[in-house]
Amino acid sequence: MKGFSTGMFLNEKRIEDAGQKNIASLRIKTPSIDEIVGQLSGGNQQKVVIGKWVNTDADIFIFDEPTRGIDVGAKVEVYNVMNSLVKQGQVRYHGLPRKCLRSLVCPTASSLCAAAR
User: Fold this and answer.
1) How many CA atoms lie within 13 A of 71 on its CB side?
2) What's residue 2's pLDDT?
3) Are 15 and 4 in contact (CB under 8 A)?
4) Residue 33 near residue 23, CB atoms below 8 Å
5) In whole angstroms, what is the distance from residue 4 CA to residue 20 CA?
6) Phi (first) and psi of residue 102, to 5 degrees
7) What DSSP string runs through 14-57?
8) Which of 57, 101, 107 is nearest to 77 (CA)?
């Protein structure tokens, strides 16, 4: 994770700032930043994973059934996060039917593949 360490040492302030930013921007519902991720709901756990990916500055994000096993409300939140990444230019959908591209959300697709900026 670029920017979170100097040599062998972790920069705890940058890590905490990134965590707080993820909580706010991804609307992760948690009692505190120190909460154990396994104690969060499935949708919030999924948003934590997406937040970690975004912090890596990766060029490619691949979403394969990102909402499997989470409730309907959480699914909407995860798709909103994915759409936000698309709007920011960090993700582009590939291999989806045109009608899915119009709405940017295609929960019927077996997988969502997001490729380079």
Assistant:
1) 5
2) 65
3) yes
4) yes
5) 14
6) -60, -40
7) HHHHHHHHHHHHTT---S-TTS-GGGS-HHHHHHHHHHHHHHTT
8) 107
3-class secondary structure for 52-86?
A: HHHHCCCCCEEECCCCCCCCHHHHHHHHHHHHHHH
The pTM of the full predicted model, rounded to 2 decimals, is 0.68
pLDDT, one tens digit per residue, over 33-80 is 999 999 999 889 988 988 888 888 776 677 777 888 888 888 888 888
The one-letter amino acid code at 39 reads: Q
Q: What is the DSSP letter of 19?
A: H
Would you say residue 101 has pLDDT above 70?
no
